[in-house]
Amino acid sequence: MTTTETIDPEYPGTAVARMLAVRARVKELAEDTVNKPFHGDWEDVRRKLLWAGGLRDLPNYRPGQGYTGHSFQDFNHVDLTTMRMDVSANENDGRVAGIALGNQLGPGIKVASLPELGPGGSWSTCAMGCNTEPKPRDVAHLQFQSRIAFKLVWVPPDFTEFVLVDDAGEFLAAGSPTGMSLPSLRERQRNYRLVQGSKYAKEADLLGHLMAQRRHAAAAVDDDE
Q: Model-level pTM?
């Protein structure tokens, strides 16, 4: 550890202070029981996710040059990764399966990252490969040698709610967005299948089970009446 920056020995590309600041923003939003920022119109919720993750909402920028319109909008770009700037230009050397060789994200990271969360940058990286053991083999952990600040996972079986979990798969927040701009049901289902059976699915499975129990209990009450 230096006087200015904490180094994660296992994933030295992690911008540790920035990662913790992101999780603090998630906690702040999750505890806002008045405005409920993770509930309501999906486009508003998505902007809150970007803000919490230290990213600007840049839907009109060119892909690779700061564009964040794809973030959390499909099954795959759901890992909010906070990396040190000296690794932000790292490229995929082929170790991340299913991702193009190169996959240069550095210029976009610099443009889109909000500076107030501390040193380093943020990006919504691809989650493909996150379900491998003993360690994830996704863009965050291999290309950037970084932990994720959070991952968005849609909750089965209805896929109308999501959970945010940390690098260890522990619960951070949940949301139930609505609206026409939601990712398609197919994308939300694929998102869950991407993590199914891994530590990142644990909280989604638990919430889905609890929701099913509540529905069954409500149905039983209706039958009794």
A: 0.93
